[in-house]
Design a protein that fits this description.
By secondary structure, the protein is of the alpha/beta class. It has five helices and four strands; from the N terminus they run βααβααβαβ. The protein has a single domain, classed as 5'-nuclease (Rossmann fold), CATH 3.40.50.1010. α1 crosses α3.
Length: 108
């Protein structure tokens, strides 16, 4: 059975900006060695941080997100999960993993 992996926003950003191990993790999904999994909420957070924290333009961001969609399976989450109180943004990662039946979460 192929591993199913949710990439948190930090992995996606680090992989796209600096490469290295985070990029290698994402590349596994691009190469169909793992099934990559995401949701709109993760991609929206990625786009927001890519622009506001790292200064990328909307057009640059608009090129990256569709690329992710070419190799990551998306699931719909309800945003009802409130299991993590210390960083509520992590709830979407966990809910995506549960809904998509992920075997792994890749976090940085």
């Amino acid at each position: 059975m192929q591993p199913v992996v949710v990439y948190d926003t930090n992995i996606l950003i680090s992989g796209m900006i600096w490469g290295g191990i985070p990029y290698d993790c994402i590349a596994l999904a691009q190469q169909n060695k793992v099934e990559g999994l995401t949701c709109d909420e993760i991609l929206n957070e990625f786009a927001d941080k890519f622009i506001t924290k790292f200064g990328f333009s909307l057009s640059e961001t608009s090129e990256v997100v569709p690329d992710f969609l070419s190799f990551l399976r998306t699931v719909e989450i309800s945003n009802d999960l409130k299991a993590i109180n210390t960083d509520s943004d992590d709830n979407k990662i966990l809910e995506c993993a549960i809904v998509g039946r992920a075997t792994h979460i890749s976090s940085w």
